[in-house]
Amino acid sequence: MNRFPIWKYVVIAITLLIGLIYTLPNFYGESPAVQVSSAKATVKVDAAMLGRVEGMLRNAGIEPTGAFFDGNSVKVRLRDTDTQLKAKDLVARELNPDPDDPVYVVALNLLSSSPQWLASLHALPMYLGLDLRGGVHFLLQVDGKQAIAKRLDSSASDIRTLLRDKGVRHSGIVRSGDGIEIRFRDEETRTRARGVIADGQPSLVLAEGGSATEPMLVASFSPQTQREVLDTALKQNVTTLHNRVNELGVAEPVIQQQGADRVVVQLPGVQDTAKAKDILGRTATLEVRLVCESPDELAALAREQHNLVRDQLLQQEAELNLLQREAAQGEHWQQQLQEAEDVIWAAQADLNQLEEDRERLQEEISRLQAEEARGQELARQLRQRQQEQRQLEEQLQRLTEALEHDADLLRQQAAITAEYARLQEVEALRSE
């Protein structure tokens, strides 16, 4: 009779015992539960929320069979599904007084009914997939056109900043379709701007367009850059979906890319399909706004606004000088040009006044810095000074618009002069 050593039987027995212990959680099944997690990044769920939720349920006559805080959410185990639905409605109503702007996510869930001593051994049940357990299957598609459009808007802002920093003047930067149109006044400026943009934005493909009087550059993304933008958007969506699925407490979800622009989301065992659809379908938008609080920041903002108004005025003055050269052949319109020059001098005087007001504002800001401890009254005075500056800028804008109107009249008058000269030449030829 063949016999093995005793130690082999002991190893087999211990292995069978360990396997039995880690198999036990599959026989306990699952219990209905309610999960509470944060719906906003600024709101955190802590251990105090556990006591708050338990107090809500006990005050309503609902006794939970277990509750715990796992670090990110509070989970409360209940006896049956009817009690689960009642508890979910109660907690959602108490934690979210405004249903249109929820602060917390209250979702239905299923938790293992394994005893605590098994959980302390990390003996967890086997998680089943959609084919054996049921759940939710989502197929989401990334809006590639919208992703490229937002990237183009960002690139247009970067080009505007780049040209301003390099001292290259332009006549306007707008996004048109799948490209960005950059207009200039002459060919030399366009050539210089092309080199600056090519160095600062290598991902853009530049093409020349427009006319001889209004040259233009058209910037667009190459096919490779478009693919990179789509890949980045897809990866960001997968990461966002992972974070949102964590709010539902789903164990072992499947979130993976399918094809070029789609994402598959499988959530086994999810009971609240409407809540899952709402969480996954939320639109996330991040806006960064500059808040000027210190006097130094306000002074820098005032200087930037002043420089912008001055650049606009210089641009209008250059246009008027061009009209003066074109209308030099017709002495009949000298008086109109003189009036336009008077408007420019008046605008320049307003600009000088604005400069004086800016210096006065700077002095006021310096004084406010020394007396900052006085508090809200000084802040109110500073806002009043800013309002006065905005009113001055609006007056300057109205003068600029009047100047543009006069320039349009001069163009029309120059055209009439040219036509009149041509008619005189024709009449002279007929007389000969």
Count all strands and give the number: 11
Instruction: Name the helicity range.
Output: 55-70%
Distance between the termini: 142 Å
Strand content: 15-25%
Computed Rg: 36 Å
Strand order of the largest sheet: 2-3-1-4
Mean pLDDT: 79
Give the assembly state of these chains: single chain
Shape: elongated
| Largest beta-sheet details | 4 strands, antiparallel
The stretches of 5 or more residues where confidence is low (pLDDT under 50) are 285-290
Could you please describe the fold and organization of this structure?
With 432 residues, the protein is of the alpha+beta class. The protein has helices at residues 6-23, 25-28, 47-59, 81-95, 116-120, 130-133, 144-166, 187-200, 223-248, 273-280, 295-326, 334-370, 376-431; strands at 30-38, 66-69, 74-77, 104-112, 135-141, 172-176, 179-183, 204-210, 215-221, 254-258, 262-268. The strands form 3 sheets. The chain has a 4-stranded antiparallel sheet, covered by helices on one side. A 4-stranded antiparallel sheet has the order 6-7-9-8. Strands 5-11-10 form a 3-stranded antiparallel sheet, covered by helices on one side. Helix 7 (144-166) packs across helix 8 (187-200), helix 7 crosses helix 9 and helix 11 (295-326) runs parallel beside helix 13 (376-431). The longest helix is centred in the C-terminal third of the chain and has 56 residues, at 376-431. The model is unreliable at 285-290 (pLDDT under 50).
